[in-house]
């Protein structure tokens, strides 16, 4: 009996001690949990530091796919789908006041760089910033993002003066903290997006990554934001462009085709213009805005010098530089229709040559004394003014998705009489229509665009 | 001529189309203001059973973004709307927004109750949060490293504190937390911690007195010190709207600014606008 009791006691003790040995005390458990939490916190702190580095990189972008129908009989095919824009914008803020921006554009068959610039903000007054690289030229419609714009494309005067919108150069911005004044002063190469032909008519300005001449163009813009209490606000300002091209020709023809002046190779052919702008935002009937800009001045295109005959190659007559006085403006009316819809109307007008009216076209011309060395210049289609009525309806599915229906009624300035300025065109079936487009009438150039935009 | 007539008719048509006032009001934004905004909504809906008001937080930046993209009717913000945000509102809705100052707040600096330091100047706070003062003994406390807690950069409190106190970059060691309540909790548990946030959340921690400079007395945020401009880190709390309020929205905003609405401001731990 004693032996059995002893064995039982030993067994119970073993079980008790074993149980005790397996189950840690509450303090031990707490220490273990504490250690685990501390370990996790340490890892979390490391992860957070890594994550904070990533928050310095911002990625945004948008894509616009569209269907267009052209009423102009000379455009064939007259309807198609296309990808208008597909851009991704990378912004890296490496420190407070230092920012890098890179925006590649991907459209079928073409990869290009839209923006590539660095911005340095002054850390003391926080009012000045310096930009360097390729960025938007300082102008309201240029700087207004294509993803926000209310009409499918910018107005004609802006598209003509600032092709491709961006330019390579450096810019100083002044945005004082407590005054709603914005001043921009830019020094640009000035050749971006502009065709500069050689004597054979081939564009030499294809790379656009450096300047074509030693002249730097200056662009200045100043705007002021005036708050009108609860009514809304009025932003107004002005901008100016003061630039030159290097002359490749020995003559420069005036805007009215009447006078020609001698110039030397390398002389500056001036192109200067100024503009005034306003944007009125009114908290009326759910919110509306009226925006406008007027620009006038002198633009220029570069000619080339004559090339003498060599052996069997015939001489090529030169083309004079041309300086055209121009004027253009646009006026927007934009109105919200509830939270999800918007209506926009724009009237835009561009006269590339204010010295030649429609009735003067082809009558006003320059006849060179010796057409074997300098080509005659005749006023024509490029001197006619164009006015466009644009209408757009937008539906915002959400912040990311917008569908837009645009219709543009395009009207050309008419020439004096029938047959004075005509063009041939080819129909879809290949039939050529001789003198089918007669600029004594309004040529139907109306355009319908249905566009869907995804933005992130 | 026909075309001009069509244009004119269209313009007249859209000219008179307007945005109807919403039946259900959504409010989004500042975490600092969430308690207050919820209280307003709760009390208002009790006395106006037909009203439907939905309140969520997320931070001032989040609220203003939601206002810009049409996802909320009211954006609560503990800071002023930035110019870049106003430009986005102009681009999307053609308005500059309506700013309604609805309460005042004193940004409170939280310390652990065991901390020997009881008051700091605005400059010292800036030095601490920029990481230039790293040990409590540099400001008269124990020889312990300072642990910083703050808000995420979408928070209006983060921005206001940065612009008015830090005046530079926050120290990389400053741990960001999602909401003022989380900052208070973190400070409660850590004897070497310092954090900042709205006055309404300051429970279970020591409130640090703040001095304008070395020669000024230290103050804690109170109705009196804020009204008399003695407390140096005060700010307005705002509600932003896309358009001038009409209908149910106007009634609600008017009520918030009425003595009844402003009484709730005081009850929640903030300070009335007038």
Write up what this structure looks like:
The complex is a heterodimer of chains A (456) and B (274). Chain A is mainly β and 456 residues long. Chain A has one domain: Porin (Beta Barrel). Helices cover 13% and strands 48% of the residues of chain A. Chain A contains 4 helices and 22 strands. In chain A, the strands form 3 sheets. Chain A has a 16-stranded antiparallel barrel. The longest helix of chain A is centred in the N-terminal third of the chain and has 29 residues. Chain A is elongated and about 140 Å long. Chain A starts with a helix and ends with a strand. Chain B is an alpha/beta fold. Chain B folds into 2 domains: 115 residues, Periplasmic binding protein-like II (D-Maltodextrin-Binding Protein, domain 2, 3-Layer(aba) Sandwich), CATH 3.40.190; 125 residues, D-Maltodextrin-Binding Protein, domain 2 (3-Layer(aba) Sandwich). Chain B has 10 helices and 12 strands. In chain B, strands 5, 6, 7, 8, 9, 10 and 11 form a 7-stranded mixed sheet that branches. A 5-stranded mixed sheet of chain B has the order 2-1-3-12-4. In chain B, strand 7, helix 6 and strand 8 form a beta-alpha-beta unit. In chain B, helix 3 packs parallel to helix 4. The longest helix of chain B is centred in the first third of the chain and has 14 residues. The radius of gyration of chain B is 22 Å and the shape is globular. The relative contact order of chain B is 0.20. At the A-B interface, helix 2, strand 12, strand 14 and strand 18 of A face helix 1 and helix 4 of B.
